[in-house]
Amino acid sequence: MSIWVLRGLRDGLVTTRWPRRPDAYADSWRGPAIVRGAASADPDAIRALCPTRAITTGPDGRVRLDQGACILCGRCVAERPDLFAWSQGATGPAAAALSRPALIVPEVPETDETVAAARARLRERTTALRRSVHVRHVDAGSDGSEEWEIQALLGPVYDIGRLGVFFTASPRHADVLMVTGAGARGMSGPLRATYDGMPDPKVVIAVGTDAVSGGLMSQSETVTAGVAATVPVDVFLPGSPPSPFSILNALLIAVGQLAYGGKGVR
Amino acid sequence: MTITQPGVTALWDELCSRVNRGDRFAGLFATKPEGGPLVLSAHLAVKGGGEVRGAIRGGIDTLDAPLPPGAVSYPALTPRLGAAFWYERVIHDRFGVIPDGHPRLAPLIRPGSPEEHALPRHVEGYGIFTIPHGPVRSGVMESIEYLVETPGEAIPHLNMRVFYKYRGVEDRFAGMSTADAVLLAERTEGIASVAHALAFCHAVEKIADCQIPPAAGLVRVLHAELERIAGHLDVAVRLADAAGLAVATARFALHKERVLRLVSALCGSRFGRGVVVPGGVGALPLLPPAQILAEADRLGQAVTADAAALMATSSFLDRLRGTGPLTPARARQHGALGPIGKAAGFADDARLSRPYDGYPSLAVPPAPAHAAGDALARLRVRWDEVDQAFGLIRRAADDLSAERATDLPRVACEPTSGRAVGWAEAPQGEVLYDVLLHEGRIVHCHPRSASFHNLVLMHEVFSGDILTDFPFIEASFGLSVAGVAQ
After folding, report:
1. CATH number of the domain within which B281 lies
2. Lowest mean pLDDT among A94-98, B57-61, B432-436
3. Roughly how many angstroms between the first and final C-alpha of chain A, as a whole number?
4. Phi, psi of B49 (to 5 degrees)
5. Phi, psi (5° rounding) for residue A28?
6. What is the number of H-type helices and E-type strands within chain B?
7. Pick from B45, B78, B100: which residue ends a domain?
8. Which of A43, A225, B150, B358 sits CB 3.0–4.6 Å from B218 for a disulfide?
9. Choice among B300-304, B306-310, B462-466 with the minimum mean pLDDT
10. Beta-strand relationship, B429-438 and B55-66
C-alpha cells in the first residue's frame, strides 16, 4: 500500500488552476465552427457542405450556422476557409448558451430578449446553490464519448471537488442534471423520472451536440432529436464530444459560479 | 468473399460445418432489399483464403441466403450455434420475422411493450429476489439495465436489457454518401471512433479498389493504437476505482487524460475523429514525428511503472483473481473477441490474422498467451496490449518521419457500386462493417461491434461470484453500450 503514497506525489500538482487562472489547453481548444463572412454565389453548395444541415443562407446572402447542430467535422472550414473558421477556446461566455436559438451564429437579433429572460430564470434558481452543487448524469443515447469527458472531471486534472461540485447517485440529492445523447426514445421515461425525482430548484445541462440537437441522428425516428423534447434544458453545450473544460465551463455557468461580468452568457 | 446459399437450412449447414472445421462465427444479420424477400447474411472469419497485398492471409467470408417470399419465420440457428443468440433477437426486433426454436425471443435492442418488460424470473426458489440495476446507473455511465437474480449474495442468474439507448444507427446509414457515413461510423461507438471509421473505410476502399498511401497507413496505426491505450487505461481506472485504490485511480486517470491530449494535439479531436477518411487520412499529424516519439516514450514509461505497481498490489489482485471466469472452451465456442477472448486462450487479433493499413510492415508481435479467463487475465492481456501499442506507435512514428516528405495524406476514393466487408481491431476486439453501395450511396451498412458480440458472455461468468464482484466483472469486460444497442 505504501508504494501508492509515494506514487501519488510523483508528478506534483497536475490540477488545472482554471477558472482562477487561464489554462493553455482550454484556450487552444477547437470548438464548433463560426461564420467569418457574408456569402457570395451558390448558396445551395454552401448549405450542402454540412452533414447535419447546420448551415443556412438567407435571401440577402447572409450565412448562418447553428452551432447546436455542429459535429465539428470541419468540412466547411476545409472547403470554404473564406466563410467558416473554428471557434477558439473551450471556456468563456460564448462556449455554452442559455437558449437554443442563441447557438446560431452570427446572432439573430431577436434572441437577445429570450436570452435575458433565460438568464433571469436561471439566476433565480441558482443563487441558493453556488458553493455546494450535486450533479446527476443521465445518458439518453450517447455514443459513449461524452461519458468519458464527464468522468474526466472527477480525475486529478480537472478535479471538480475543489469547486464544491460533486456527482451523486440519487436524483433526490441532485441540483443539476447533465444529459448526454440524442434522446433515445427508450430513455425518455427514465430521463423524465430522474428529472421529476430531483428537488426544486434544479438546472438541466444538455451536454454535447447530440443532446442539443440530435446531431447526425436528428433525422432518425428512434430519437427525439435532442433531449429538450423530454426535459426543459437550461444550458446548451455543443461539441462532439465537448472537451472536459467546456463541460466544466457550462456547469459553472449553470450554477452561477461564473457570471462573466458585464459580457453575459449568450 | 460472398457465397450465396439456396436456403436457410443450407446456410446453417454450411455455417455449422465450417465453424466445426475451425472458422470463427463473426456475425449474423438480415437485410430487406427493396421488393425482395428478407436475406440472412452470416460472417465467418477464416484463417486462410483471403489475400492481403499478395500474401495469403485470413479474411472474412459472407454467406447469404434469402428467405422464401412471404416467409414470417425460419428455423433458428441458435439451438445449433449458441453464439447467434443475440443476433437472432436483433433480426426479430428489426424485421419481426420469427426464428423457430429460439430459446428466448424477448426484445433486445428495441423497447417492446411494458408487458414484455416484466420478465418472469429465471431462477425460482426460496428467498430469491431481483435487484434491478439501471438503466440510470449510479455513476457517470452509459444506460443499461442489469437484472440481478440473487438469494442475497451469489448471482445465480443475470439478465441484461440493452435497448434503452437504442438509436437506430444502422437505419440512419441508408442513403448517406460515404463521406458522411464515416462521420456516423465514428459516432456508432464513440470510445472506438477510430476502429469503427477504419472498418467502414476498409470496406469502402475494397469496393473502390483503392490503395491508401503508406504514410496514411502509418497515421491510421498511430491513432488506432492511441485509442487502444486510452481504452485500456479507462478499464484500469474503473478497476482501481472498484477496489477503492484512490491514488491508482487518479494516476491512471491522469495517464488517460494525457493520452487524449496527445490525440487532440495530433488532430484536434480527443477521440481521433475526422482522421480516418475513405482513401487515407484527413491530414498528417499536426505534431512532427520526433515530438510524437518523445511524448509516447514519456507516457509509455509512466504507464508501465504504474501498471507494475498495480500488478504488485495484493489487495487489488485478490479482487480480480478467479473473478468472472470464462472457460477457454466457451470462449472458443462463442468466438470471444479482443481481450476477453485472449484472456481465455482464444486469440484472433485482426491486426495479426487479417492485417491492414500499416500493420503488415510494422510486424505486430504475437501477444503472450493467457488461459485463466478471469478478470485478472483480462487485465494482463490489456497491459500486454498497451506495451505492444507503445512499441507500434514508436515504429510508426519512426517510419513516418522517413515517409513524410514524399507522401500525400489521401488518394481519391470514389466507390460506385458493390459490397464488401471491412474490419479493424478496436480496444474491445474486432469491429466488422458490411457495406453495400449503389452509385456511391449506401444501400445498407451493418456495423458489428466487439461490444455486441462479447457482452452476451456476461451472462455466463458469475459462477461463484457475489454482488460485490459485479463492478470488477463489468469493468473487466471494458465494453461500450453504445456499440451494443446501436
Report:
1. 1.10.645.10
2. B57-61
3. 49
4. 95, -30
5. -85, 0
6. 18, 14
7. B100
8. B358
9. B462-466
10. unpaired
Cβ contact B254–A145 (<8 Å):
no
Residue B457 placed within a domain: no
Of the candidates A141, A210, A216, which has its C-beta nearest B183's C-beta? A216
- Provide the ipTM: 0.95
User: E strands of B54-193, at which residues?
Assistant: 55-66, 73-75, 98-100, 129-133, 145-150, 157-161
Number of domains in chain B: 2
Min Cα separation B190/chain A (Å):
5
Q: Is there a contact between B253 and A156 if contact means CB atoms under 8 Å apart?
A: yes
For chains A and B, CB pairs below 8 A equal: 170
Strands B98-100 and A104-105: unpaired
Tell me whether B314 touches chain A (CB under 8 Å).
Answer: no
- Mean pLDDT computed over every residue of chain A: 89
CB A162 within 8 A of CB A134: no
Q: Is residue B308 part of a domain?
A: yes
What was the pLDDT predicted at A70?
Answer: 95
pLDDT at B48: 62
Query: Which of B93, B116, B136 is the mutation pick for testing A, counting most A CBs within 10 A?
Result: B136
Distance from CA of B13 to the nearest CA of A (A): 36
Decide which of B60, B83, B100 is a domain's last residue.
B100
pLDDT at A83 over 60: yes
Q: Is the dihedral of CA A227, A228, A234, A237 positive or negative?
A: positive
Q: Do residue A4 and residue B139 have CB atoms under 8 angstroms apart?
A: no
Residues 191-230 of B with CB under 8 A from A: 191, 193
Residue A190: closest CA among A238, A136, A127, A115? A136
Q: Which of B136, B163, B483 is facing A138, going by the closest CB pair?
A: B136
Taking CA–CA distances from A170, the nearest residue in chain B reads B138
Alpha helical stretches, state H, B3-113: 8-20, 85-95
Contact status of B167 with chain A (Cβ, < 8 Å): yes
What was the pLDDT predicted at A264?
A: 58
Strand partners, A236: A97, A206
Domains (range + CATH), chain A: 30-88 (3.30.70.20), 111-254 (3.40.50.12280)
Task: Using a cut of 0.90, tell me whether the model's pTM lies above it.
Answer: yes
pLDDT band for B52, please (50, 70, 90 cuts).
Answer: very low
**Helix count and strand count (H, E) for chain A:** 9, 10
Q: Which residues of A touch B163 (CB under 8 A)?
A: 186
What CATH number does residue B20 fall under? 3.30.460.80
Neighbours of A106 (CB within 10 A): 13
Domain enclosing residue B37, as ranges: 2-100
Min Cα–Cα distance to chain B from A184, Å: 5
Check whether the bond before B328 is cis (ω within 30° of 0): no
